[in-house]
Amino acid sequence: MRWLPFQLNPDLPESGIPREEYVARKFGARGKGVNERVTMAGRQVGIPFAYEKMKVQPNTLNAHRLMLFAERTGKQDELAEELFRAHFIEGANLTDRDTLADIAGRVGLDRKAAFDYISGDTDREQIARADVEARSAGIGGVPFFIFNRKVGVSGAQDPEMLLDAMEQALDDSDK
After folding, report:
1. pLDDT, tens digit, 9 for 90 and up, residues 135-158
2. Which H or E run includes 150?
3. Residue 166: exposure state from Cβ atoms within 10 A (0-12, 13-18, ≥19)
4. pTM as predicted
């Protein structure tokens, strides 16, 4: 499994924007209801979303760069989980380099090396290009799953739908 970069909000400033402002812009009056529905769905599967803790809607370019950094040491899955936990449960500001470095340290990556990496420009263009490629391929949101580089599934789906897509991708590979 590989995590590929896709920014939901690539046009946000690098420092992000206040979460309340973002929700108001994107959803208007129904914004509070959107968070409540996701929170209720999360509870059903044991994910304690804490949208009330989120103060910043981040530009995630550096978080995606950090994912590439983690991939090189086999820690990409662990980092993805910690980034999700930090953002959705702890309300961490994923635009803050110290915060990102701390999250990297939580999964066993060298904190200083991670901080130095995201403080520079290494892989910035690579991540931006991959994001553009995803959009050019028709990907417009997350989650988006690509199985065996053949079958794409967009959005949160039931496990049965995902299993069907996986089986289709395997069947297609035999032809």
Report:
1. 998 888 888 888 998 898 888 788
2. none
3. middle
4. 0.87
